[in-house]
Write a structure and sequence with these properties.
Layout (H helix, E strand, L loop, with lengths): L5 E5 L6 E6 L3 H20 L2 H17 L1 H12 L3 H24 L4 E3 L5 E9 L2 E5 L5 H6 L2 H7 L2 E5 L8 H9 L2 H4 L2 E3 L4 H10 L2 E5 L2 H14 L3 E4 L4 E5 L5 H13 L9 E7 H16 L19 H16 L3 E4 L4 E3 L2 E3 L3 E4 L6 H4 L6 E7 L2 H9 L3 E2 L1 E5 L3 H8 L6 E4 L16 E2 L2 E2 L7 H4 L2 E9 L17
Parallel strand pairs: 5-6, 5-8, 6-7, 8-9, 10-11, 10-18, 11-16, 15-16, 18-19
Antiparallel strand pairs: 1-2, 3-4, 4-22, 9-21, 12-15, 13-14, 17-20
The protein binds nicotinamide-adenine-dinucleotide.
Length: 478
């Protein structure tokens, strides 16, 4: 359509704009929503087994299109291993919800405490769910909420990030091979304006992205009285107690911070270490951090990829400069490097930091580890909780019980004990986002599907219904 804007897409390994999308305008989004909405009642009416086998057919179709999908994800993110894992994860996500769905969607008849009354809770899917996703895990985060919503009987309209949109073309080819799913799962491409239009056209919105955008989405959803499930940013702390083994703790902190070049919401972004082990921990951390290699020039070598989003490199640079200006010391990394046109940064360990610095307050979204010593556990807990965010956190200690005793006090929705960032590997436990890290029902655990169902109570009177005589004044006479 003539009014659709073209958006350039940058390749993070070359720095070149080598792809384009047409941003869907209001009418295109409305038409996509209407098409999905029309097909949803028939989808919801299918027995659950049928819906689940359609999802299985789709997983098979996706695996037939794996090469094209991988190529697109690699071009958008500059990383091979993580892209491959994103594709492999799709089958696992469908299998997990297929296992859970029968129990979650059961509608048993229940007796009640009121004589003669029984009831059934009818689970009515929200007709059209919208999903808006960020650029850091393009495929995973575009489908993470879509899959349980589809299993629940909803139709889903997804708007992926304009920074990493290439996977939509090969994924749509796979989708076209499964017409039953194609009818109820759609994609619209575009930037924030397309996102605004999507929120205007759906019955619930799942948003994954920054706090600033999440707030706008939450306000727009509130205006329309539709649920908004907001999965936002983090500034995850790790507390390393004196009983932790320094070398192992340093290795864990490093992995949990630099995985995906730190471009993960659950990355460890602040480390508080008991003063007794601060020096050995720091020495081990710097040694291990220096061994981490960029996956450049060979994408199949090294550990970490480029910075995907050009503007993120600027945020990281400014935060580091501000910290150094405030007296911080950078022990390794610290520079945005240019290789082949892409922007990269090596794992960066920083000390001499305090909570007045943006590096300790704002999301960095890079492989940067600021480390601070603490003297008492109370101080460590206070420092960890001194943040606007509350996504997740971690505690390392000599024993799990000791780690848990501290983890209970951390103001975050998920706390990894004797590891970091476990929410990237484990989805069974429900967790809420605390503070500005989000709003709405848990994406993980049973609530991850239940939040797409409205409850209609079907209340059965098994006796004779009361008549007006039951209200006769004489019955209440003293
Ligand atoms: P972003 O907020 O800039 O964009 C996210 C999405 O929102 C994009 O698709 C964008 O086009 C769209 N958008 C922009 N303006 C909009 C508007 N007004 N209405 C509707 N949609 C709009 O975030 P980003 O930079 O793409 O992603 C990085 C952020 O995502 C980080 O803060 C990270 O922590 C967060 N994140 C959170 C989780 C989680 O599960 N909590 C997971 C991954 C990433």
């Amino acid at each position: 359509m003539s009014h659709e804007r073209l958006l350039d897409v940058r390749n993070p390994r070359t720095g070149e704009n080598d792809y384009r999308i047409a941003a869907a305008g209001d009418e295109t989004v409305a038409a996509a929503a209407q098409r999905l909405r029309a097909a949803q009642p028939a989808w919801a009416a299918r027995p659950l087994d049928e819906r689940l086998s359609v999802l299985d057919e789709w997983v098979a179709a996706v695996s037939r299109h794996r090469e094209g999908l991988l190529e697109a994800l690699v071009a958008d993110t500059g990383r091979h291993f993580v892209s491959s894992a994103e594709i492999a994860g799709l089958g696992g996500t469908v299998a997990r919800w297929s296992r859970l769905a029968p129990e979650l969607l059961a509608e048993p008849l229940r007796s009640s405490a009121v004589p003669g009354i029984s009831y059934r809770t009818r689970l009515v899917p929200i007709p059209l769910v919208g999903a808006i996703s960020p650029w850091n895990f393009p495929l995973t985060l575009s489908l993470i909420d879509a899959i349980p919503a589809l299993a629940a009987g909803c139709a889903v309209l997804v708007k992926p990030s304009e920074v990493t949109p290439r996977f939509v073309a090969p994924l749509s080819e796979a989708l076209a091979e499964v017409p039953a799913l194609d009818a109820v799962l759609g994609f619209v491409q575009g930037d924030g304006a397309t996102g605004v239009a999507l929120v205007d056209n759906v019955d619930a919105v799942c948003f994954t992205g920054s706090v600033a955008t999440g707030r706008k989405v939450g306000v727009a959803a509130a205006e329309r009285f539709i649920p908004a499930f907001l999965e936002l940013g983090g500034k995850d702390p790790m507390v390393v107690l004196a009983s932790a083994e320094p070398k192992q703790a340093a290795a864990t902190a490093l992995r949990a911070s630099v995985t995906a070049t730190g471009q993960a919401c659950q990355s460890i972004e602040r480390v508080y270490v008991a003063r007794e082990i601060f020096e050995p921990f720091l020495a081990e951390l710097v040694t291990a951090a220096r061994r981490v290699e960029l996956n450049w020039p060979d994408i199949h070598e090294g550990h970490i990829g480029p910075l995907i989003f050009e503007r993120q490199a600027q945020i990281i640079r400014v935060q580091l400069e501000d910290a150094v200006a405030g007296g911080a010391t950078v022990h390794c990394g610290g520079e945005i490097e240019t290789h082949g046109g892409g922007l990269w940064i090596r794992p960066t360990v920083v000390t001499g930091v305090d909570h007045g610095m943006a590096l300790m307050r704002e999301e960095t979204f890079g492989p940067v580890l600021p480390v601070m010593p603490f003297d008492t556990v109370e101080e460590a807990v206070a420092l960890a909780n001194d943040t606007e965010f509350g996504l997740s956190a971690a505690v390392l200690a000599g024993s799990l019980d000791e780690a848990e005793a501290v983890g209970r006090h951390l103001e975050a929705g998920a706390v990894s004990l004797n590891d970091g960032a476990l929410t990237s590997r484990f989805y069974e436990a429900e967790k809420d986002s605390f503070k500005y890290s989000g709003l709405g029902g848990s994406r993980m655990g049973p609530a991850g599907l239940r939040r797409f169902l409205r409850r209609r109570a079907l209340i059965r009177q098994e006796n004779e219904p009361a008549t007006i005589e039951a209200l006769a004044e004489r019955l209440g006479r003293p």
